[in-house]
Amino acid sequence: MPMSEEGKERLRESNRRRWADPVEREKQIVLRTGVVRSKESIQKGIESRKWYHPSEETKEKQRVGNQKPKPRSPEVIERLKPLNQKLGKQLGLSNIGRHHTEESKTLMSVSKTGEKNHFFGKQHTCESIEKISKSRLGKNTGENNPLWKGGISFVPYCFRFNNRRRKSVRKFFDNYCICCGCHADENISKGTRKILVPKELSVHHILHDKNEGCNGIPFNLVPMCEACHLTERWDEEGFKKHINTALSEGFKWGIWSEQDYIKQVMYSE
Fold first, then answer.
1. CA dist., res. 19 & res. 28, Å (int)
2. What are the two backbone dihedrals, phi and then psi, of residue 70, each rounded to the nearest 5 degrees?
3. pLDDT per residue over 21-50, tens digit each?
4. Is 193 left (phi over 0), alpha (psi -120 to 50) or beta?
5. What pLDDT score does 194 carry?
6. At what angle do helices 5-20 and 22-32 cross, to 10 degrees?
7. pLDDT tens column, 218-257
8. DSSP labels for 191-253?
9. In angstroms, how far is CA 34 from the centroid of its own chain?
10. DSSP class per residue in 77-129
11. What is the per-residue pLDDT for 222?
12. What are the beta bridge partners of residue 204?
């Protein structure tokens, strides 16, 4: 039996009074923390709400609320600061509730790039790569990983695929990504760690053949930004088709010279 409007209003008022009292609110939070509802309780909740049918206006409000979360007001932020500081002291975190400025982020990034990086000029061994892979992916290692290709990541590149050849490829395409047109000055990592310093474009093998240049097959290389290069692994065939189409149309419309591409990229010495 659906609840009357008067009963709903009384229930709302009692909830408002209960949550307005800090002591009562703290009690409710403690009582609810770590409580797991039984299947019977969940089923009762489902049965009790079968009669509830929100109006179209309510549904639209719920859609808008789910799509764009409401930002916290300055008053709420100020009120939460002491709580965050108290939590930080309890957990031993001195920076909780604070945020680095863009200038400090840039300085930290610059201080750990190039020769200042502790790993500059070094390289992981095959054993260390395997250990890191297992520690990060857990069960999704080796053949269980959706990106597994028989261990080709451990196969070395042809010795002709050197820094001089990479520079030649980037120079031929004027340091622009073949897929999205991003310039090298805009090549910033899109990963979880925001690297604010632009990096050189990656040089990608279109055919995914690391032995190109040593097995009689000419090099098929193009520059790609980091975002496109990371995304390419999930749709290799789609990216291969897109790259070949971009190359053929670029040669057709005179953006690049096909003869120069053959001379400077495919058969460059």
1. 9
2. -75, 130
3. 777 777 766 666 666 677 888 788 777 777
4. beta
5. 47
6. 100
7. 888 999 988 888 888 888 888 888 988 988 888 888 888 8
8. SSS---S--PPEEEETT--TTTTTSSPPP-EEEE-HHHHHHHTT-HHHHHHHHHHHHHHHHHT
9. 31
10. HHHHHHHHHHHHHHHT-TTTT----HHHHHHHHHTTSGGGSTTTT----HHHH
11. 92
12. 222
CB 266 within 8 A of CB 257: no
CA 166 – CA 120 distance, rounded (Å): 19
- Dist CA 134 CA 14 (whole Å): 54
Tokens of 202: 């990656």
Collapse the DSSP code of 204 into the 3-class scheme (helix H, G, I; strand E, B; otherwise coil) and give the result.
Answer: strand
Domain-wise residue ranges, the chain? 162-266
pTM: 0.47
Phi, psi (rounded to 5 degrees) for 178: -70, -25
Lowest-pLDDT range of 70-84, 97-111, 232-246: 70-84
Side chain identity, residue 147: L
What count of residues does the chain have?
269
On whether the CB atoms of residues 222 and 206 are closer than 8 A, the answer is yes
Q: What are phi and psi of 202, to 5 degrees?
A: -75, 150
Q: State the Cα–Cα distance between residues 266 and 269, nearest whole angstrom.
A: 9
In this structure, what token pair is assigned to residue 129?
Answer: 């790569």
